[in-house]
C-alpha cells in the first residue's frame, strides 16, 4: 500500500476520533479468495464431513505446503515463543515485527484462511485465536485504557495510518447491504490484518465458535469524562457489524453481489419477426445477418410497436437507411459514391428484350 502525501498533514492535527486513511482506496474484491475458502471450509460438501472438519487446522496445513508461507510462519512462531527471562515471556517488539512480515509478504489466500477460518467447535476456535501467538503479541499483565492505547499508537506514523485505514474501511455503515463502506469485504479484512503487529493489535477475545468478537487488548476503565468516547472507540471492534459480517462471509466462502447503482430498465418484449425465404447459398453470413436485422426493424415499424431507446434498436433503425459493406465496419450512405444498377431493373430490361425477339 502506498502512503499518500496527505498523511503528514493529519499527523500533526489534534486528536480526531476518525482520521482519513492515507492509503489508496481498495477497489478490488475477494471473490476468488472466497471461492477458495468455500472449498476448504466444506461449503457445498457433505454437511456431516464439514461439521467434523477443523478448517483452521486445514488452513495451517495449506500454509505449510507453500514455501514462503511456511518459512515466515515458522519464523514468527519461533520468535514469539522465545522466552527472554522468567519475568519476560518474550520480546514483543521482535514478535510484532515477525508478524508484520508474515501478513505483508504472504498472499492473503493463506493468511486470511488462518485468521478468518470458520469453526464448528471450541478446539477450532481456539486454534484461530492462537494464530498470532497472543500470549506474546496481544496479551499483557494489565489492560491499558483504550484511549491511552490509541494515543500510543498515534505516536507511531505506521500504526496511526493502519488504525485510520481500519476506521475508513470497517466503520459500520447502515446505508449498505453488508454494513461495510461500499459493501467491500476485502477492504475491511485487509485493514484488520494490517493492524496485526502493532500496539493496536486486535484478536478474538475468546474461543467461542458461535460468536465472533474481536478487540484490541484494552478496556475503558479509568476513562473519566472520556468514557463515552472510549466506549465508542471500543465498539468499533467489539460490536462492529461490518467486521463481523466480513469475517463470517469469508469463513463461509460467500460474498455480496453488488450491482452498479443506476436507473432500472424494464425489459422490452422482442418484436415478432416474420419468416423470410431462404437466401441463396452464395451469400455470406454477414449479408444474411444484415438482411435479418433489416427485416426485424421493418417488422417493428409495420406493427407500430413502441420501442425503447436502447442501443441495439437505435443501430437497427440506422441501418435501414444505410448500406453496410459485408465484412467491414464502413458504412456508405445511399447517395454517396457511384450508383449501381438495381437487380430488379436489369431483370425488367432483359424481359422486354426477350419479348421483342419472340415477336
Automatic annotation (TrEMBL):
It comes from the Eukaryota. It is found in: Cell membrane. Pfam families: GDNF. GO terms for cellular component: external side of plasma membrane; receptor complex. InterPro entries: GDNF/GAS1 (IPR016017), GDNF_alpha (IPR037193), GDNF_rcpt (IPR003438), GDNF_rcpt_a2 (IPR003504). One of its GO terms (molecular function) is glial cell-derived neurotrophic factor receptor activity. Residues 1-22 form the signal peptide. The keyword Acyltransferase does not apply. Residues 276-287 have a biased composition (Low complexity). SMART domains: GDNF. Residues 257-287 are annotated as: Disordered. Residues 56-136, 146-242 form the GDNF/GAS1 domain. One of its GO terms (biological process) is nervous system development. It is a lipid-anchor; GPI-anchor. Keywords: Cell membrane, Disulfide bond, Glycoprotein, GPI-anchor, Lipoprotein, Membrane, Receptor, Signal. The keyword Transferase does not apply. PANTHER family: GDNF FAMILY RECEPTOR ALPHA-2, GDNF RECEPTOR ALPHA. Belongs to the GDNFR family. This is GDNF family receptor alpha-2. It comes from Colobus angolensis palliatus (Peters' Angolan colobus). The lineage of its organism: Eukaryota, Metazoa, Chordata, Craniata, Vertebrata.
Amino acid at each position: 500500500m502506498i502512503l499518500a502525501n496527505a498523511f503528514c498533514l493529519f499527523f500533526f492535527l489534534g486528536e480526531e476520533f476518525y482520521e482519513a486513511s492515507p492509503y489508496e482506496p481498495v477497489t478490488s474484491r475477494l471473490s476468488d479468495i472466497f471461492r477458495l475458502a468455500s472449498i476448504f471450509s466444506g461449503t457445498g460438501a457433505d454437511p456431516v464431513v464439514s461439521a467434523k472438519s477443523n478448517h483452521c487446522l486445514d488452513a495451517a496445513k495449506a500454509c505449510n505446503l507453500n514455501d514462503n508461507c511456511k518459512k515466515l510462519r515458522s519464523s514468527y512462531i519461533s520468535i514469539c515463543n522465545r522466552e527472554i527471562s522468567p519475568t519476560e515471556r518474550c520480546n514483543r517488539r521482535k514478535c510484532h515485527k515477525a508478524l508484520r512480515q508474515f501478513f505483508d509478504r504472504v498472499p492473503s489466500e493463506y493468511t486470511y484462511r488462518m485468521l478468518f477460518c470458520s469453526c464448528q467447535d471450541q478446539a477450532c476456535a481456539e486454534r484461530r485465536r492462537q494464530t498470532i501467538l497472543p500470549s506474546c503479541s496481544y496479551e499483557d499483565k494489565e489492560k491499558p485504557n483504550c484511549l491511552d492505547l490509541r494515543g500510543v499508537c498515534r505516536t507511531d506514523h505506521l500504526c496511526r495510518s493502519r488504525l485510520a485505514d481500519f476506521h475508513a474501511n470497517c466503520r459500520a455503515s447502515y446505508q449498505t447491504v453488508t454494513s461495510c463502506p461500499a459493501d467491500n469485504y476485502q477492504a475491511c479484512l485487509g485493514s484488520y490484518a494490517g493492524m496485526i503487529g502493532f500496539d493496536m493489535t486486535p484478536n478474538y477475545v475468546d474461543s467461542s465458535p458461535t460468536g465472533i468478537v474481536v478487540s484490541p487488548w484494552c478496556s475503558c476503565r479509568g476513562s473519566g469524562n472520556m468514557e463515552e468516547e472510549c466506549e465508542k472507540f471500543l465498539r468499533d471492534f467489539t460490536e462492529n457489524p461490518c467486521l463481523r459480517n466480513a469475517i463470517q462471509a469469508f469463513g463461509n466462502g460467500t460474498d455480496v453481489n453488488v450491482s452498479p447503482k443506476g436507473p432500472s430498465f424494464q425489459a422490452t418484449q422482442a418484436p415478432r419477426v416474420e419468416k423470410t425465404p431462404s437466401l441463396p447459398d452464395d451469400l455470406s453470413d454477414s449479408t444474411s445477418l444484415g438482411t435479418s436485422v433489416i427485416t426485424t426493424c421493418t417488422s417493428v415499424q409495420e406493427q407500430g410497436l413502441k420501442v425503447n431507446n436502447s442501443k441495439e434498436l437505435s443501430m437497427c433503425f440506422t441501418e435501414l437507411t444505410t448500406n453496410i459493406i459485408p465484412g467491414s465496419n464502413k458504412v456508405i450512405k445511399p447517395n454517396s459514391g457511384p450508383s449501381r444498377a438495381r437487380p430488379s431493373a436489369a431483370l425488367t430490361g432483359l424481359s422486354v428484350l426477350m419479348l421483342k425477339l419472340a415477336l
